[in-house]
Design goal:
The complex is a heterodimer of chains A (about 325) and B (about 350). Chain A has 14 helices and two strands, in the order ααββαααααααααααα. By secondary structure, chain A is mostly helical. Chain A folds into two domains: about 55 residues; about 240 residues, MetI-like (MetI-like fold), CATH 1.10.3720.10. In chain A, about 35% of the residues are buried. Classes of the chains: A mainly alpha (about 325), B alpha+beta (about 350).
Chain lengths: ~325, ~350
């Protein structure tokens, strides 16, 4: 320890004198950072700029020679495109069901696997996390079979208790809730971060509350919730942006056409069709930028609400 | 004095026993609740496994029990007859139904067929058929014939494997640069790096696609592999956090001894970072194994290059009416990630906690 302190106090003056060594450090540092710097320029900066440029052009890969600058026409087209409004409403409907699932299910599971009296906690944690390993495609295929209105277990169970289950994937009103139900299998990592949040709450706080005669329910709402509110907030941002990005489930269940009757044509599916089926890159880029702006606005709005309900123990 | 010595131990004992009993009931209640929730949560997985072992007959049979089973028949004088559970005076018997009648039927006892037909009074339609567990394994071969599942798995393996090598090498180097070198503007660069994590991929998607097509990489694996050789923000973040926890004195000592930075990285940092490197490798492998959008876009029409995720979608569209084969194909798809997950789940959990997020 003493040796280390000595070395630390002795080292800086020597280094400050020798600028050659500093230059060497910068040179090596840049060499190590170079993969990211090149990749960032090549796969982030350049495409973002290009995407903005595309959005003010007419650019279709089917006839790329007709590439021409058309100003804000793509944006004008977007605001008068009934499909855009329609797909945004469908996406919003999905988000309104999927976001609460994405917060309350992992919170409930985290509380469960954090319970002091639960036997075999690690086994439970691993098993609740496990579906996260399954590819989104496989999740959709499996839930597609389980929610099948004839051969699926969900409707067979509902029938057994005397409820007639809906025709999930044929009924325009039920298909979006069905897609949202599938997200219960992607809560694993949220559960783990919430669990880490729960374990960071100092136990003395619970003990003090118990001495003061607070019920477990009360200490949950007055200690646990405020203490883990930063984790909830963080996951809320991710869940909201994530549900606006929904693509795979509607793509597979709606056969890429928005079946039944356009009711699964979410925003990203419309974007995909525009850009990769009709190869209309100009309008596709416009749709992409508008989605980016929507996500940005949602994030900013959430951050504005933060002061009202998120408690930072560090005082931030 | 004597009274105190007698009563005190007894009180302690009662109190301890009651507490132990209360702990036991609390543990049982919590664990039971956990099991119920877990069963509901993993129910679709159970459906997948059981259905993949059923043939079409077994799936549509409304009376079939939970496990893949089929009705048992008995061959009597050259003909197959269904076995029924027949209530008789001497308990329920498993008899083969030979002659169906409205109010009375003729049965034969498979244990003793030479005794001839037995008359039984009652409606045979009220009887339960006898089922035997009989898993059907043909779905796996059939699924593999319909869409080459093994070829698709091999493709996924190559794509994911090469990408993993790329991202581990590149992210290690970049994380080392961020963790150990004083570069002007490093903090700004790091904030930009973190910013790219939140950036939605659509914004870069279309020009990237146009770019890869323009250089002739449309319909190849290169767009799925090469970008990972330029590191990835999540992995850099995870590794940097880990490298920062390694005492700096160790690599300063190596440096003073004249080791080059690369040498220091290889012989000081990497040997201490296996948990984080394993987590990064696994995260990327599964990300690539499960990735759907990029292969869908770049490999359109190139069936022989499809990874398993796209092949499974194709299968779903073509064989949606064959739940047995579909579930068998899905089971094959998920088996590798799930097995590796259980072998290495501790690294996963650690990795998620370090980054606070999984990719």
């Amino acid at each position: 320890m003493a040796v280390a302190t000595q070395a630390a106090t002795a080292a800086p003056p020597i280094r400050r004198k020798i600028t050659a060594s500093q230059r060497r450090e910068i040179k090596w540092g840049l060499i190590f950072l170079s993969p990211w710097i090149i990749g960032f320029a090549l796969f982030t900066v350049f495409p973002m700029v290009a995407s903005l440029v595309f959005s003010v052009t007419e650019f279709n890969l089917l006839h790329p020679t007709e590439f021409k600058f058309i100003g804000l026409s793509n944006y004008a087209r977007l605001f008068s495109d009934p499909q855009v409004i329609q797909s945004l409403l469908i996406t919003l409907k999905f988000a309104l069901i999927a976001v609460p699932i994405g917060i309350f299910v992992p919170l409930g599971l985290a509380l469960l696997v954090n319970a002091k009296r639960l036997f075999g906690k690690n086994v439970f944690r691993a098993l609740f996390y496990m579906p996260q390993m399954i590819s989104a495609v496989a999740v959709v295929v499996v839930f597609g079979a389980v929610l099948n209105s004839e051969s699926g277990w969900i409707n067979q169970i509902l029938t057994a208790i005397g409820i007639e289950g809906p025709r999930w994937f044929q009924d325009e009103n039920w298909v979006i809730p069905a897609l949202a139900i599938m997200t219960v299998w992607t809560v694993g990592s949220t559960m783990i971060t919430m669990l880490a949040g729960l374990q960071n709450v100092p136990t003395e706080m619970y003990e003090a509350a118990r001495v003061d005669g607070a019920s477990p329910v009360r200490s949950f709402f007055n200690i646990t919730v405020p203490m883990i509110s930063p984790v909830i907030f963080y996951n809320l941002v991710l869940a909201l942006i994530g549900s606006f990005q929904v693509f795979i489930a509607p793509f597979i269940i709606g056969a890429g056409r928005g079946d039944p009757n356009g009711s699964t044509m979410v925003y990203n599916l419309y974007l995909y069709k525009t850009a990769f089926a009709f190869l209309d890159m100009g309008y596709g880029a416009t749709l992409a930028w508008v989605m980016f702006v929507i996500c940005l606005i949602l994030t900013v709005v959430l951050f504005k609400t933060q002061r009202r309900w998120v408690y930072y123990a560090g005082g931030e | 004095m004597t009274a105190a010595t007698v009563t005190r131990p007894r009180n302690t004992f009662n109190w301890a026993a009651r507490r132990r009993w209360r702990n036991f009931t609390a543990t049982s209640a919590a664990t039971l609740l956990g099991l119920i929730v877990l069963t509901a949560f993993l129910m679709p997985l159970g459906y997948m496994v059981l259905t993949s072992f059923k043939d079409v007959q077994q799936i549509i049979d409304p009376n079939a029990p939970f496990l893949p089973s089929r009705p048992v028949t008995f061959n009597y004088q050259g003909q197959d007859y269904p076995l029924m559970q027949v209530p008789t005076d001497s308990g329920t018997k498993e008899w083969a139904l030979v002659e169906k009648g409205r109010e009375a039927s003729k049965f034969v006892d498979p244990q003793n067929p030479d005794a001839g037909l037995i008359d039984w009074v009652g409606r045979w339609r009220t009887l339960q058929p006898v089922y035997r567990v009989d898993p059907f394994t043909g779905n796996f071969a059939a699924a593999n014939d319909a869409v080459n599942v093994f070829r698709a798995m091999r493709n996924s393996f190559i794509i994911a494997g090469l990408g993993t090598i790329g991202t581990v090498l590149a992210s290690t180097a970049v994380a080392y640069g961020f963790a150990r070198f004083n570069i002007p503007g490093k903090n700004v660069l790091f904030i930009i790096l973190i910013g790219t994590i939140i950036l939605p991929s659509q914004v870069t998607l279309i020009p990237t696609y146009v770019f890869f097509r323009a250089i002739g990489w449309g319909g190849t694996w290169w767009p799925l592999i090469v970008p990972h050789f330029f590191s990835n923000a999540y992995n850099v973040f995870l590794l940097r956090q880990y490298f920062l926890s390694i005492p700096k004195e160790l690599d300063e000592a190596a440096w003073i001894d004249g080791a080059s930075p690369i040498r220091t990285l290889v012989s000081v940092i990497i040997p201490q970072s296996w948990p984080a490197l394993t987590a990064v490798a696994m995260f990327h492998f599964f990300f690539a194994w499960n990735d759907f959008f990029a292969p869908l876009v770049y490999l359109t029409g190139k069936e022989e290059l499809y990874p398993i995720s796209v092949a499974l979608t194709q299968f779903n569209n073509a064989f949606g009416s064959q739940p047995g084969q579909l579930m068998a194909a899905t089971l094959m798809t998920i088996s590798l990630p799930v097995i590796i997950f259980f072998l290495a789940q501790r690294h996963f959990m650690q990795g998620i906690v370090i980054t606070g997020v999984e990719k």
